[in-house]
Amino acid sequence: ALFRPVSMVVPDLALICEIMLMAEGFQMSKILSRKFVILYKLCEDLLSKSRHYDWKLRAIKTTLYVAGGMKRAAPELSEDKVLLRALRDFNLGKLTSDDTSIFMGLLNDLFPKTLELVPRAIDRVFEGKIREAAIELGYQPDEMFLLKISQLRELFVVRWSVFLLGPAGCGKTAIWRTLMKAQLALGEKTIYRPVNPKAVTRNELYGNLHPATREWKEGLMSVTFRDMSNNKINKHQWIVLDGDIDAEWIESMNTVMDDNKMLTLASNERIPLTASMRLLLEINHMIHCSPATVSRGGVIYVNAEDVGWKPVVDSWIEKLEVRHVSGPGGMPL
């Protein structure tokens, strides 16, 4: 390496983990960091090679921030229980159904006889609002459906770009619509702007400079970003990107999705992503994503069987019953 013009170094994950745990207030940082790194290494080796998995440094840092927040929120819990809760609650949302049992087995081996003693941290008031919102929108308040909504809210706290991933018809849109309604019911003003990045050209999406006149023409993302960035009223502002990911448009979002939080336009204008703004990418696969893109966002994976067909049928039957009771033309029978 001494005779080469460029040297590459792999980060020492165990040391980084130990220092970050200590900074978050963990006194058993040496032992816990070892367990943490072993778990992520085993996950990388033993779990399926899904394209949306990321067990590298960015994922480790985010989980450590979550663990620090949980430690301050529940000071009565021992440090290993806090870390176990962070590892379980933060990672379960992105796992496929086949990998969940393997992951829970690994957690059980690293934290023996502790898993059952640490329940999930639940916000009772908000869970009630989610249930009410689901019923109002005509959805079934199924336990797994409600869990995915809670996981999405928790992920929005620590990540500003989130991939809502899953096959068509698995309930992705229903999840974020229910979350939005629940937040509005709680008094947290939430707005969203849907954009289909594949329906327009790259210049129409980000804006472009005219080659002859050097005149700037606005794009969908530049206008949406500027409007939301200047808005100081709404507590939550979501840009919902509903369309397949490809390298042509997603690579330009890398500066938004990483720690810079800036949309850099061709006109040299830099629009910041404010604290209330979030990117929600609703997609059914990440085949064309580079590892750089995968590591920059949090993932909620919705398996086809998580919600399943039964809630859809139940909602359909409920609508039929309402129509049948009211009779033709809306006249009561």
Automatic annotation (TrEMBL):
Name of the protein in its database record: Dynein heavy chain hydrolytic ATP-binding dynein motor region domain-containing protein
Predominant cellular place of this UniProt entry's protein: cytoplasm
Keywords recorded for this protein, A-Z: ATP-binding, Cell projection, Cilium, Coiled coil, Cytoplasm, Cytoskeleton, Dynein, Microtubule, Motor protein, Nucleotide-binding, Repeat
Compartment list: Cytoplasm, Cytoskeleton, Cilium axoneme
Sequence similarity: Belongs to the dynein heavy chain family.
GO molecular function, one term: dynein intermediate chain binding
GO biological processes: microtubule-based movement
Organism listed in the record: Chlamydomonas eustigma
Coiled coil: none
